[in-house]
Write a structure and sequence with these properties.
- It is globular and about 60 Å long.
- It has 14 helices and 19 strands.
- The chain has helices at residues 77-91, 95-111, 131-144, 159-172, 193-206, 217-227, 231-237, 255-264, 272-275, 285-290, 310-320, 330-344, 377-383, 411-424; strands at 2-5, 9-11, 16-17, 22-24, 30-31, 41-44, 48-52, 54-59, 114-121, 147-154, 179-185, 209-214, 245-249, 267-270, 295-297, 361-365, 392-395, 398-402, 405-406.
- The longest helix is centred in the first third of the chain and has 17 residues, at 95-111.
- The protein has two domains: 2-50 and 357-405, Urease, subunit C, domain 1 (Roll); 54-344, Metal-dependent hydrolases (TIM Barrel, Alpha-Beta Barrel).
């Protein structure tokens, strides 16, 4: 058992408590507190605010190996996509790259207080059923103690091949409690109605969640040019506006589209740390929430958001919300980053610290100068101390970050392995402002 004690404040996701403890049993679930026994490990949270573990509902872990590439900043998505594709081709996507990139991305997530990551994997080797790629990412998650939702995505693939791969991955992980599988095309800009239909059939056969991306810049352009429609109109026609579907991005959708999403029962993932620098606009997350749409938060991948720091993106969501409708409260955005994201993944056991929920929690140190003078310590997690990292992180009752240090693996070794792999494959290390120019030599 694990007992987290001494916190200044505990936010369970549903209530704020002072002087409270959180106890996780041997199964990794939150249980009502009781008298400590000899087998109870005590985690000191003195000077901390304790929250549920953050849930990153939209990531592309492979892109962790492709951050700040030349020609990918300040460009339209129609130019960004082929430049990223060229980088993938130059390095070569295989099991090793998937494992090493996921290890870096998941280690970064844990060190930033994220305990669950949904990885929307869109890029695949030219041969194979994709199972080995999924297993490589799952291996990285298992070694680090992170929770993983692996989404078998597609982007301009043969529909039958994509569906066959999704079927194989679903079967390979059937009954595995450590990995949740989902399916989802990249969007209507990349895949047609056949791909959406076939992946939907796989999801229905195996009880999987579906997710896709909508209203990115190129998504709107291609939908208009190819179909004469808006992306959400197409998703509605193709049966992808339903309660088992989560949509990421949703930039600058109209009030009528907000109403459509509300009526359909879908959930949404707000990704401001990607959408704003890419120039796609701001999703009306508050309007969606007001309309009854469950809202979660994601970072997207390293190709568009070079950090996997969900709390930093929650702060950004808080700051830009007035530009897309109304101001929001910090506790509301924290709810998006925890239970809201978990709802979109179909996981009522995550994002809360109520009895019976998963023992995933974060101890945020608020004893330093960054939080001095803060009247509301919970709100201060977002408003104060940009880029803060947690003191402790617990996943399923197991401490994976203690005093800011990753326990399951050595952080420097994880980073060094990615640097070495990229060098082995002809990508020079980034040593200065001119080094990036060498990437396409």
């Amino acid at each position: 058992m694990l007992r987290v004690s001494g916190a200044d404040l505990v936010w369970t996701g549903t209530a704020v408590r002072t002087g409270a403890e959180i106890v996780c049993d041997d199964a990794g679930l939150v249980v009502p507190g009781g008298a400590p026994g000899a087998s109870v490990e005590v985690l000191d949270a003195t000077g901390c605010v304790v929250t549920p573990g953050l849930v990153n509902a939209h990531h592309h872990l492979l892109q962790t190996a492709f951050r700040t590439l030349p020609g990918t900043r300040g460009v339209a998505m129609r130019d960004w996509l082929p430049r990223m594709a060229a980088a993938y081709a130059a390095v070569g996507i295989d099991d090793e790259l998937a494992y090493v990139a996921a290890s870096v991305g998941l280690a970064e997530a844990l060190l930033c207080g994220v305990t669950t990551v949904a990885d929307h994997q869109l890029n695949w080797p030219p041969a194979g059923d994709g199972v080995s790629i999924a297993r490589a990412v799952a291996r990285a998650a298992n070694e680090l103690g992170a929770r993983l939702v692996f989404v078998r995505g597609s982007a301009r693939e043969d529909p039958q091949s994509a569906a066959a791969s999704a079927e194989a991955i679903a079967l390979a992980f059937a009954g595995d409690p450590r990995v949740q599988i989902g399916v989802g095309p990249a969007g209507v800009h990349s895949d047609g109605p056949e791909t959406f239909a076939l992946l939907g059939e796989v999801a229905a056969a195996h009880g999987l969640r579906r997710r896709t991306q909508a209203n990115e810049q190129v998504d709107v352009e291609v939908a208009a040019a190819r179909y004469g429609r808006r992306p959400l109109e197409l998703l509605d026609e193709w049966g992808w506006l339903a309660p088992d579907v989560t949509l990421a991005h949703l930039c600058e959708i109209t009030p009528a589209e907000v109403a459509l999403l509300s009526a359909s029962g879908v959930s949404a993932t707000h990704v401001p740390g990607c959408d704003l620098p890419m120039g796609w606009g701001v999703a009306p997350a508050a309007a969606l929430a007001d309309a009854g749409v469950p809202v979660g938060l994601g970072t997207s991948g390293g190709g568009s958001n070079d950090a996997g720091h969900l709390l930093a993106d929650a702060r950004l969501a808080l700051q830009v919300a007035p530009l897309a409708g109304r101001p929001v409260m910090a506790v509301e955005v924290l709810g998006w980053a925890t239970a809201g994201s978990a709802t979109g993944l179909g996981r009522a056991d995550l994002g809360r610290l109520d009895p019976g929920c998963a023992g995933d929690l974060v101890c945020w140190d608020v004893s330093g100068v960054s939080d001095a003078g803060v009247a509301d310590p919970l709100a201060g997690l977002l408003w104060a101390g940009p880029g803060r990292r947690p003191r402790h992180v617990v996943v399923g009752g197991q401490v994976v970050v203690r005093d800011g240090r990753l326990l399951p693996r050595v952080e420097s070794q994880i980073a060094a392995r990615l640097h070495a792999l990229l060098r082995e494959r002809g990508v020079p290390a980034a040593t200065g402002p001119n080094s990036a120019r060498d990437f396409h030599r």
